[in-house]
# Entry
Amino acid sequence: MDNIIEVKNITFEYEDGDEKHIVLSDFSIDIKRGSFTVILGHNGSGKSTLAKMLNGLYKPTSGEVLVDGISTSNDELEIEIKRRVGLVFQNPDNQLVASIVEEDVAFGPENLGHSPEIIRQEVDEALKAVDMYEFRNSTPHRLSGGQKQRVAIAGIIAMKPDCIVLDEPTAMLDPKGRAEIISTIKKLNKENDITIVLITHFMEEAVNADRVIVLDDGKIVADSTPKEIFSNIGLLKKVGLDVPQTTELLYRLKESGMNVSTDVISIEESAQKIYDAIHLEEI
Amino acid sequence: MSVLEVKNLTHTYDGNTPYMHDAVKNVSFSIEKGEIIGIIGHTGSGKSTLVQHLNGLLKPSDGEILLDNKNIWENPKNIRAIRSRVGLVFQYPEYQLFEDTVYKDIAFGPKNMGLTEQEISIRIKEICELVGIKDEYLEKSPFDLSGGEKRRVAIAGVMAMQPEIIIFDEPVAGLDPMGRASVVKMIDDYSKKYNATVLIISHNMEDMALIADKLLVMNKGELALFDTTENVFRQHEYLKSIGLNVPMVTQIMLSLREKGINIPNDIFTVEKAVDYLMTFVKGGNHNA
Amino acid sequence: MLKDITFGQYFDNNSFVHKLDPRTKLILLILIIVFIFVSQNWISLSILIAFVLFSMILSKIPLRMYLKNLKAILPIIIFTMLINLFYSGNGEIEPAWTLNLFWGLKITSIALIRALYMIVRILLLIIASAELTYTTTPNSLTDGIEKLLSPLRFIGLKKVVHTLAMMMTIALRFIPTLIEETFKIMNAQKARGADLENGKLLQRIKALIPILIPLLISSVRRAYELAEAMECRCYNGGEGRVRMKQLKYCLKDYIAFLTVFAVCGLVIAINIVF
# Structure
């Protein structure tokens, strides 16, 4: 099967007293196996709800979500779905169960009832994949935010999922922690062939994605490659997203009449674009 | 005359306290009234420990803190009065909300200062007007507000004490661009109206370039640099060596310089960069 | 005060004692505690002292850790000592000497010896218990308790035992987090002028509200998020769960059991002889 996740015309509503809130309505997306998808949206755009629908933590009010062809509404196969699609949350502290790193990572495989030898192997591999193996006997309390979040990711990887959904995994981290997480995610996608769905409001985190989806008010307002999305900075700003300063500069230069495109993010690429544009003017 | 002076402040960290803070070693600086100071440095560089000394939450192991030339620990009994003069807004301040209405929560600080109900109500009205908290919000429960609104209420709770110095630890962490802009505006409005001195801890160099007059750089518990924002960002190589960056726009300008384009090394904001690059293109006054 | 309590902390160190099965350590600790009170004279007690000292050396935990721990409970020790010191009892044996103090208080040689005896017992008890927590991770301690209680499953309490163990694991994981959070909230409210140090009892209790409410709210939020995270990691109440670290008695455990049995036997023998 080509798609690991298929979201088909789902609606999600909840009631708060007398008020009825519609978070998502008639919403559909497919996630390709092995792909790296970034979902961009500001706070309250429905992106966290969507994340929790992808592994059946929330069930759609109508429509269906298929994981590897299995509907998340199928209660009997609940564990199978959760094993296939792992979810990583914003606050690393509130995801760790045990006070020893390796025992925490073992939590998922233990629940799956694997044999102790297999669990040991899965735990070691997972910790190595996020580069936290040397901290296996440490306690989460002594780790930095980025390290804790990597342990949380290892806890998911140890279950050998096909796909990991990360809901704003860097929002509470400092720049160093953010960089650690982004490079870990990239590596898992490239080297371990894990499908990644990264939900964030930092545009620069989308730069390595195969596909970027922009969400606003529970609806998809754009769905394309990073290059294409980034060339439409006006839209990203309109839906209240974080635009990095490099892009902001290119955007403003373009508005002022310089012939530059805004589809790059790194410092080097941006400098090169401006350099080329200046030389172009000269000719 | 300096409003706040830190003299040889040292804080040794006893490895056994349950609430961890980093060490600070022999730090001295002084701040003039009305200045906006950015404090930058790695996680663990001692920034948080430093600011918790300024309002007497931590007591120096050595050295002293002078507020209007008076040691804040001269009379330890008065330390609570110091805290209403030097306000401190912690990271994620919305987690400290506890009252059942927004009004009562903002009133907590002024009440602790011993003000009368009437004085408190005047102050709350004043601060809410300044930072744009609408009247109908005052009787709501703070827990029914959105994340960004909670943050603003929590900050207003410190501002209502009308401190002459106000310190923020990562005031915009976790907010989206809209929430960020409203918090930055709030800080700006407050400092202008009360001619208050502001200290802001942040990892975001781009924000710092926009707001801060001066930057205080901490590294491994020591004061690495304390100078105007321009002068600090000019030392990009040194900053890089201690793991800090200059704003992205400055990095682009530096990269253009390396490519042989004659651009000054002190462009720190997008505005300035656009102005400069556009006149550059139009005037053709380069020697690339 | 809080910072002096090292009790309940694990110190990573690969010693003989660390490697023992947690069940072994739990059972042996209980045995030793019982025998500290079974012992009736200095000779049998000194065997226990020798054994506890020996196990301390074996544990490779620095002595200062034990001392710090004792410092924290010093008031209890002093209190016990005073009670025993001034209680002269109706001794049938004439004390070797009597020291008369003010207000008719007197210390007799017998009382002094008895007080010392009591203190040595308390010290042994605390050191032995501390050694268990220093050398056993909270998690393996929990596993040990869960395993030891597992016979309860025959009377239909399997779920209860697992739930209790899970609760302990989570509690241990979040204690440091909550302590840190408490200090953060305290500092934040102090920065808003809250007075936590002064005032009458009622005022002080009232002053705790601004700390307890945020702490409660954040704990509920944490609990909720943790529950979701656990669900995402395929937790369904412990059904079919297999532990990575299986408990298994090995040669070390048998040696430890035999040694402690020998010590206990010796204590009984001495009690009978003397």
Q: What stands out?
A: Residues 1-136+248-274 of chain C form one domain. Chain C touches chain B through 24 residues (CB under 8 Å). Residues 158-191 of chain C form the longest helix (34 residues).
